[in-house]
Amino acid sequence: MSMTRNRILFGGDYNPEQWPEETWYDDVRLMKDAGVNSVTLGVFSWAKLEPHPGAREFGWLDRLMDLMHDHGIGVVLATPTASPPPWMGRLHPDTLPRDEDGRTEWWGGRQHFSHSSATYRRYAAAITEDLAARYAGHPALTLWHINNEYCTYDHGDEAAASFRRWLRDKYGTLDALNTAWGTAFWSQGYDSWDGILPPRRAHYLKNPAQVLDFRRFTSDMLLECFLAERDIVRRHTPHTPVTTNFMPLWSGQDGWRWAEEEDTVSVDLYPDPRDPLGAQYGALVQDLTRSQARGPWMLMEQAAGPVNWRGVNHPKPRGLGRLWSLQAVARGADAVCYFQWRQSRQGAEKFHSGMVGHAGEEGRTFQEIKQIGAELHTIGDEVAGTQVPAGIAVLHDWHSWWATDQDGRPSTHVDYPDVLRAWHRALWEAHLTADFAHPEHDLTAYRLVVVPQLYLLTDTAIDNLLAHVSGGGTLVCGFLTGVADEDDRIRPGGMDARLRELFGIRTLHEWWPLDAGETVECGGGLRGTLWSEEIEADGTADETVPYQGGELDGLPAVLRRGRAWYVSTLPAPEALRPLLARIAAGAGVRPVLDGLPAGVEAVRRGELLFLLNHGREPVTVDVPGPHRDLLTGATVTGRITLGRHGAAVLKP
Ligand code: GAL
What we know:
Strands 5-4-3-2-1-9-8-7-6 form a nine-stranded parallel beta sheet. The chain folds into three domains: 9-155 and 218-383, Alpha-Beta Barrel (TIM Barrel); 392-586, Class I glutamine amidotransferase (GATase) domain (Rossmann fold), CATH 3.40.50.880; 600-651, Immunoglobulin-like (Sandwich), CATH 2.60.40.1180. Strand 7 (266-268), helix 10 (278-293) and strand 8 (297-301) form a beta-alpha-beta unit. It starts with 8 loop residues before the first strand and ends with a strand. It is globular. Helices cover 33% and strands 20% of the residues. It is of the alpha/beta class and 652 residues long. It has 17 helices and 26 strands. Bound molecules: beta-D-galactopyranose. Residues 148-149, 268, 270, 301, 307, 339, 349, 352 line the site of beta-D-galactopyranose (GAL).
């Protein structure tokens, strides 16, 4: 279901309940000035809409919906269920979640609801029902936004009861659960379902299979909350798309499973303006979101300037906000929105920037917002709805992440998102556009499949990888892949036997994690970091790169057998980039453009070529053929100069 028609949505979270009504008229004037065509209303409005149990105060929202419609601004209407009013916790303490120590998360902040609380769910359904009924026919309504950044855990008693129900559904019998959890270890065998708890505070290491299932359960419970509200709004407005905003590369939800249930996939993205790899992190999240959406997606939130939740919160230098907005569009966004429209004067986020900051309409931020709005309006017609072609798939799976993100592992330095970022960075720096995919997805559209690290792989996923290679595709796997089955049980030999055969590995003798900062030299100048492995090859590999020096001297660090590669360390960035570029070239995947200067990103979307200069200095880029720059209207023949943080959107 499409959210836009030949245009890019531009706007942001709008929290008018924090302001006197006169300000709303000023807001609308400035929104029109900035080209805002979409606002998200009601995200944290529960106490305003339902000040007492069962009460309904819709008048203010009626006036706002009308005001927006009168000015041609669409409304992304949120259900307010991410922040229950204080009366709920006071009257119904069962709605409050508990952490692993049994401590209550009280009201006074936000997201203090238990996903398993029947009382919370009842109140959430009731307010959603009335909201949907009231605004179903309203012409301003363009999209439903359910809750906000689902992210809570609950270890309380009601959650424990639903965990047991979930486990009964999954395993059927206690025997099956005891087997899957390996409870023979440390005398953990359960003789009754009632004995099973969420993984609460324990004396020493917890059962990893229990922790893994708890994370699956949590994702499923939150999804139930989402689906309950989604189904209510769908009943009232079957033709209005529904979304819920993901956090970027967030571990709390199975993002593949969730995305299947949304009409529009949206994400919130806040790269650190000081991070030299902030743009790459942005590109990763954008590629992942596009892949979850299987097409255009929505940037639901970004910051116009600083956030307020880092240790030091840096503003965006001039031009960076525009550049990163265009980057999102290049990588498939059909909506570029912000948290939030007007910077709050009170509350926990009064130091978080807004599109209209404390400096008001004269402020630099707002001036830049106006430019972005105007430019998105100019290119919207050509861009909206088009696809981003990619010949590479990077495989990612939340379940594998959950299995590795635990104690009692070979190395605490191995951080799954960091490994993912390192591999994606190599592709990004080599100007190779990649999608993400689940290991069981159909991979036939991709010539190259990259697996940075999938410690846990199901048998079906392994079949899929093997089929990819036997079907003519190229596969490259990073260390610690194919180690465990879906119950987090180590596979015989420490790595799936079929994968070992695929790569030409006879025996994986030991994992040799490296200390922080330690590196290991390998042939061809390749420097390994983080990890190494003691591998005995079976003699069938077509190519190997050996470890040089140290305990593993002479043993293979990298093996290639046909089109299957295994990389048993994390090559340093200057080694991983050329390695992947070579593998991609061998697979027939070309970079977007050759000979790009450092710091320039190039992305194709539809027939357009986006050029983005992440550097602080102007650069000149050679572009074959004549083009028109949609941002300036200028004709470009042969080369174009991009200023500091400059960008071009070229149409042949
Ligand atoms: C998001 C959230 C917004 C706002 C923002 C600040 O996580 O959805 O409500 O808090 O962060 O960066």
